[in-house]
Amino acid sequence: MFGIALGINPNDFKIVSLRPKGVVTGVISQFLLLPLFTFLLVLLLTPHPAIALGMILVAACPGGNISNFISSVSGANTALSVTLTGVATILTPILTPVNFNLWANAIPETQRYLESFSISFTDILTTVFLLLILPLAAGQFVRARFQKISKRIEKPIRVLSFILLMSFIGVALLKNLEAFKDYLYVVFFLVLTHNAIAFLLGFLSAKIARLEMQDQRAIAIETGIQNSGLGLIIIFTFFDGNGAMALVAAWWGIWHIISGMLLAAVLKWRDKRLISAKGV
Length: 280
Hints:
Number of helices: 13
CATH architecture: Up-down Bundle
Structural class: mainly alpha
Strand content: under 5%
Number of domains: 1
CATH topology: Na+/H+ antiporter like fold
CATH class: Mainly Alpha
Largest sheet: none
Oligomer: single chain
Radius of gyration: 18 Å
């Protein structure tokens, strides 16, 4: 989050007052619609309670670290994407634990499974605050006070953050090889479906709000790219690194990069087709 904060210009947040509909739609899509539809998907497919909890936790997390990059290469409204990343980070300490507790306890099977762990709303809130809000504040402080330094270190820190995330995901998979073998095909299908629903919800909510195409893309990407790294930290901190839960979050961390880049490629191809058609 520190690396992302270095790239956030406070002026970007002016879009909240200038074009509030896009920001409000993005927040609703990410923190209301995605957790709700995740709950419905779990009810429909009835996966193992641990897998269901992993899905609910990922859906309760904010947008992932690469959402701004994917927005920039897909022709989305990057300013809106950056703004949503910042707003989501500020809202996450409250909305992530609220969403997780609400939907995890709304299903009898996951509620019973959750009782086997010692965890509270305050625990998750404190963890999310330390992992997101403090790095965000530190990054903004460095950007404001040491602009030249922040410009030099922004890209290296982003790259380092990505490498650390991939390493963390790799460790999570290695530590849960048995769960990986037992649930591989189930989790692959569920994450693929879950992620596709997330992108679709972003597009549809923005379309219903009658936002421009660039805004629709930004909101879809912010909804479909989730901070699975945060989910993994919560799982290893409060759920003893539960194999099935960690597998869901780890595979999300890999798959949303693949699906995000595929979506960006399709959108750029579509743009080229439209430009070619207009030129004929």
